[in-house]
Design goal:
The protein is an alpha/beta fold and 366 residues long. It folds into 2 domains: 155 residues, Response regulator (Rossmann fold, 3-Layer(aba) Sandwich); 181 residues, Response regulator (Rossmann fold), CATH 3.40.50. It contains 11 helices and 16 strands. The strands form 3 sheets. It has a 7-stranded mixed beta sheet, with helices on both faces.
Length: 366
């Protein structure tokens, strides 16, 4: 099972209520006074210097910095998204962890199974859709940053061809492709987005090969929903532009990266640890974005012209103020059919279960 893989099970009606209070864990605050709250994290990849797992580990470190002696954190990296995850999660419980963050979609079933066995332990699962009395879920509104990045791409391209290296054809990735394209076409209706799917979250060689193929289709600005800096490095080598994903990747291509769509998991982790320490933890279905500080975009590359930078900052302010939604109508699908009428905003069921391309994306959806 791949990280954040979409199983199309939202139609099964398996979602629990959006907020569930775990009353059995109220004594947590009293226990915290006597000994540190032990918190476990399991990661699907290695803790390196960039990407998805790196950002989660920055969040873990922020928890340590914020709460000091009140907490103790441990982590396990490179955990397979298979039955092995169940063993790792159970071992964290046996080692004394009473709050556990499982940071990838493929850990969902294992998290739920172990949570049933240990009802007094708190579990938080990233990007899933199933909850329980002691299992909360959390994910991001990445599409907000993707729309802003698209606006910059639409004005910076010279060929009107944008390249997107994609991982898996799931709603999470489709939201980013569509928001990126919709943002680009809002400032440049001639733009087309060309997508190459690599069926992997992290594979630098395949990511680079995909970007190379896109250069052959006259793409001169690149975005990605993969984790390595290979695309930014390629853009740097070829004098093209790109955007980082998950992490700020400017260290791998200072001239190429125009900005990045980064995620700050730490704000959420601090929020949930504070709840647990106070005996007020809630199992919530959380979707945070720019307003909550979870989605952050580094400063624009100075090569971006002032007028483009102003468009970017004005729209960013509108999103932060709740005055603009990246999927506000009119929005058409790839075939030109109206999906969201003018004056309307995409319903959550359509947004979080997205399985179509917007107008301006080339190619067939896998």
């Amino acid at each position: 099972m791949k990280r954040r893989q979409w199983l199309q099970a939202t139609a099964l009606g398996t979602l629990a209520p959006a907020i569930v209070t775990l009353g059995a864990l109220a004594p947590q605050a009293a226990r915290a006074a006597a000994k540190p709250l032990k918190i476990g994290f399991i990661y699907p990849g290695p803790v390196s210097n960039v990407g998805w797992t790196f950002q989660h580990d920055l969040g873990r470190k922020l928890v340590e910095k914020t709460f000091g002696a009140q907490v103790q954190t441990v982590f396990v990296e490179n955990v397979p998204e298979s039955n092995d995850a169940e063993r790792v999660i159970r071992q964290l419980v046996m080692d004394g962890c009473t709050l556990i963050f499982t940071t990838s979609f493929g850990f969902m079933e294992s998290t739920l199974k172990v949570a049933q066995e240990f009802p007094d332990v708190i579990f938080e699962h990233a990007t899933g859709y199933k909850m329980a009395k002691n299992v909360g879920i959390y994910q991001t509104r990445f599409y907000e940053g993707a729309y802003l990045i698209g606006m910059v791409a639409g004005r910076m391209t010279k060929t009107n061809n944008l390249g997107f290296v994609a991982s898996f054809p799931i709603p999470e990735v489709l939201r980013n492709i569509n928001a990126f394209t919709h943002g680009a076409r809002s400032v440049n209706p001639k733009v087309r987005t060309k997508v190459v799917w690599i069926n992997s979250w992290y594979d630098p060689a395949r990511e680079r090969d995909a970007a190379m193929a896109l250069t052959g289709q006259q793409c001169d600005v690149f975005y990605q929903n993969t984790d390595s800096p290979a695309i930014v490095q390629l853009a740097q080598a070829k004098g093209l532009y790109a955007f980082g994903q998950d992490s700020d990747m400017r260290a791998f291509g200072a001239k190429a990266q125009l900005t990045a769509n980064t995620v700050n998991w730490g704000v959420y982790y601090v929020h949930k640890v504070r709840q647990a320490l106070a005996g007020q933890w809630k199992a919530e279905d959380t979707k945070w974005g720019m307003k909550e500080g979870m989605i952050e975009l580094p400063a624009l590359n100075p090569v971006v012209p002032p007028d483009v930078a102003k468009l970017f900052s004005d729209k960013k302010a509108a999103i932060l103020a709740g005055q603009f939604h990246p999927f506000s109508g009119p929005v058409k699908d790839q075939a030109g059919a109206l999906k969201i009428a003018a004056g309307q905003t995409i319903p959550d069921s359509e947004l979080w279960g997205m399985k179509w391309y917007v107008e301006g994306v080339d190619g067939k959806l896998p």
